[in-house]
Amino acid sequence: MCGFAEDFLIPEGTGSGDVRELIRARRQFIEDPASELTRRFFDSFDWRLYRGGASLEERWESGRRRLLFRQLHGDETVSWQSIEVDPGLLRDLPQGPVRERLKPLLGIRRLLPLFEIRSRRQTLCLLNEDEKTVIRLLLEENRLRDHAHHGAQPLAVRVRLLPVRGYETELRDTSRMLNVDLGLEPAGASVLIEALAVTGRQPGGYSSKLDYHLDPRERADATAKEILLGLLDTLEVNVEGAKANLDSEFLHDLRVATRRTRSALTQIKGVFPTELVEDYKTRFAWVQQITGPVRDLDVYLLDFDGYQASLPVPLQPKLEPLRDFLVGHYDEVHKAMAHALGSRKFRSLLETWRSFLQAPIPEHPTAPNAMRPSKEVADERIWRMYRRVRKEGRAIAPDSPEEELHELRKSCKKLRYLIEFFSSLYPRAQIGALVKMLKVLLDNLGRFQDLAVQAGHLREIAEQMSVEGRAETETLLAMGALVGDLLGQQQQARIELAQVFTDFDAPENQSLFRDLFAPTRA
Amino acid sequence: MKTIGVYNSKGGVGKTATAVNLAYLAAEEGNRTLVWDLDPQAAATYYFRVRPKVKGGGKALVKGKREIDAAVKGTDFRNLDLLPADFSFRNMDLVLEDAKKPTKQLARLLKPLSEEYDYTFLDCPPSISLVSENIFRASDAILVPMIPTTLSARSLGQLMEFLEDHVQLERLPVMPLFTMVDRRKRLHLELMEQLRVQYPGIFGTPIPYASEVERMGVHRMPLPAYASSNAATRAYRALWDEVKRGLTG
Question: For the whole model, what pTM was predicted?
Fold first, then answer.
């Protein structure tokens, strides 16, 4: 931040004691007694803190257990907060400064431990002629403990400069002494980054976002396999988290990857044998089916506070039995799903699917599009789907049956997935604009349909609750009010659709689609 | 940020020791704490082993030529910073007189630090002057250390009168406390009793006379940092608890 290094690495073979003696020959200091520090680093599965430029560590120091939040870059102040139980979901963390800073980054994801670093540390207080501390040097010997690896691994020994406010000249001089006189190398990375590298973890290594770098001339079947393999990777890495219900995003990402898999299978047409496509289509539909009930409960529970807030104040507490009901059924429903995800059927689906995707592409494929260049197939498929969306959308009138809106939503989703799969074949900015537009349309259609489904589902739950004798009249009335509110919002979405679709169908967007995907006339 | 002025127009009553030791205890609890040594004699600055020098002096601060946070020095203690004194502070009244709104300059200067610190202690010079009025205007409460003697009690009365005469200062909480109390002296005990009747707001904890307090100048650090179990240290701790309660109450 001030243009000089703050961390230096001590070369292998040199101990912190040797460095201390070298400094003693040059500067007057007093030393604090050495202390032990244990730090456990955390991030979410999808590296939300790292991506947000932050880190979180749990520290045990002189009998105290605290969380420390800091920015990885810049000189922002750190935040501290005492804790008593393992950090996990934000909602379980007590109120405090660390929680406040985690909130915008972490969302609904769980904090998972990355590894533990144990340090032996000693502070040297460098003094001026008044015997005033003008800078502190922290000597730090670090050992890494990781669940995946047994035993402790030593990390580089570090000297850290801890500035004292108002003594910038001394800070610069000391930095120069360490670097020039003692020949120490500035540390390029923090101890967190160093430890990640040692454990072979790639920070930011997981994201549910699609990120392909496709070759437009590659055979379409090979490209389809590449896309599907990426989706399978995403699906697989989320299985354990979904089974253990670490947080609801594991299952969500698993389901999105499944839905995208089905979409890629059916929409990248004519690249694989028909029987194979049909077979896996059915088998992945089963995955959607076994994971659906838990996802439904997740959605209700995630939205519950919002539901409650949408009701008039006197009715709000009456909705609590619904939450109890949902929570009460959660374990049983989740157990059934975990069982299915642990079944031989599920394992064999993933195994056979992977071996198909990883097998070499056939020399003489029977599927008609298999050997065509990817870009050609992508253009054709996206253009067709776009025309279908346009046709279906234009046909919708204020009195069209709900099924037509539902069909339009399905087509839109297929179009969006296709564009996302193949996006690397097209100019990034234009694709970004198209996806954004599609999202607006999909949000509207999604709201229309999901709200109706939720309202219908709530009605079923109300019935079930009365059968089980778990609903007072007041609660049923509150649920009725909620259903009414959801249906009201649904109608609102329907009213807005006309304008949203007109925007989507604007002439400039039409030409954008045409320029990117339409076949060139000879 | 809570700003605490430590004031008595009489010298030698333990203002600096009170400011420095309470600030140390505040910082020890994890509060970001600043001591501003406004006394050109620079005793607080000396205790923290900092050179009594502010570039450009008080004038540069008041005229905005030097940012106040650039003058702050870290002490040897975590969370505890010092704004050192400067010999030029002896002319502070003249500088303030020249400024617009001369009684609100200190409050204005402290404003940018309000996010940075939880507590600021103002160690004030012994006088009744424009500087003192600035201190009153900038403070959330005034701590008034006094030895149980007639003269130092008299200065408390003067302060009360001064505040009552100024509409903006009428409500400023005044928190008197006894320092350098010698329980063997009958006069001390009698006066304390008498003053407590006259000023019911006086803190219950008296700071006893202790030679260890005088040694602050030898150790050049706050008392609790070198004599953590001394009777005076214990008294300062109890006093700090009372001050915190007084600030929130």
Answer: 0.77
